[in-house]
Amino acid sequence: MLTGNNKRPVFLTLYQIRLPVTAVLSIFHRVFGVIMVIAIPFLIYQLDKSVTSEQAYDEVVECLSSPWLRVLTGLLAWFFIYHLLAGIRFLILDLDIGTERVMARNSAWLVYALALLAAVALMAVLL
Amino acid sequence: MSRRINGLQAWALQRFSAVFLIGFSLYVLLDLSINPVSGYSQWRSWLGQPLNSVLIMLASAMLLIHAWVGIRDVIMDYIHPLALRVLVLSLFALGLLASAAWLATILIKVLV
């Protein structure tokens, strides 16, 4: 794996590291992506049940509207929107658009602002 | 095949599946907000519409590919001992393959 200079300095005092907004955006894009991958079986289970019978469909609707699962699905929906918006930003960066530092930071803040709006909209729908 | 080519393929697959999934999400959001679906029979007929079932089939494949490339990148970044890395990669690979099979049975159920 790592060869060559194995004595390079390592600074991992996490609470002293101040990451720029673009890096924080990227880390949460990753974290939420992993959480959604882990949620896939749960979502497939609900989908499977929802097409099995009228009664099972009603059970799914009832189950998803219980307070706890409402919070869980609301969170998942928010992770999805965040991942989608941050992902669109990454795709635009891939086209070499907005790679200058000021632009990159502004677009990261824009993603946060849109994700916040989405959170408010989700809460309005779910509560 | 060299590792560099593998990495480029994964990168391209991740981007391609991302673009497909963005389009699919927008389509579902728009279609369901124009024609809201409520109740079992409407839900079944929405899923069974020819265009929808084809798109869902493609989106399922794209989602699992996207999940695989993403989780593979994360595992390779953070899990360094080779045996553990292979174990965790295998677990996720199995889980995603099982998910693919499960999704296929659901689609068959909807279409038959």
Question: Can you walk me through this structure?
Answer:
- The complex is a heterodimer of chains A (127) and B (112).
- Chain A has a single domain, classed as 3 helical TM bundles of succinate and fumarate reductases (Up-down Bundle).
- With 127 residues, chain A is mainly alpha-helical.
- Chain A is 75% helix and 0% strand.
- The model of chain A has no long low-confidence stretch (mean pLDDT 91).
- The longest helix of chain A has 30 residues.
- In chain A, helix 1 packs across helix 3 and helix 3 packs antiparallel against helix 4.
- With 112 residues, chain B is mainly α.
- Chain B has one domain: Fumarate reductase/succinate dehydrogenase, transmembrane subunit (3 helical TM bundles of succinate and fumarate reductases, Up-down Bundle), CATH 1.20.1300.
- Chain B is 89% helix and 0% strand.
- The longest helix of chain B is centred in the first third of the chain and has 32 residues.
- The mean pLDDT of chain B is 93.
- The chains are: A mainly alpha (127), B mainly alpha (112).
- Chains A and B meet through helix 1, helix 2 and helix 3 of A and helix 1, helix 2, helix 3 and helix 4 of B.
Index terms:
heterodimer, A: mainly alpha, 3 helical TM bundles of succinate and fumarate reductases, 4 helices, 75% helix, B: 112 residues, mainly alpha
Helix-strand layout with pairing:
The complex is a heterodimer of chains A (127) and B (112).
Chain A: H1 21-50, H2 54-64, H3 67-94, H4 101-126
Helix pairs in contact in A: 1-3, 3-4
Chain B: H1 3-34, H2 40-48, H3 50-78, H4 82-111
Reading off the top of the CATH hierarchy, the class of chain A is best stated as Mainly Alpha
Output the structural class of chain B. mainly alpha
Q: Report Rg of chain B.
A: 17 Å
Low-confidence stretches of chain B: none
Distance from N terminus to C terminus of chain A (CA atoms, Å) equals 50 Å
CATH level-four homologous superfamily name of chain B = Fumarate reductase/succinate dehydrogenase, transmembrane subunit
Global shape of chain A = elongated
Q: If interface size is counted as residues with C-beta under 8 Å from the partner's C-beta, which chains form the largest one?
A: A-B, 23 and 28 residues
Give a quick account of the main beta sheet of chain B: strands, pairing sense, barrel closure.
none
Number of helices of chain A: 4
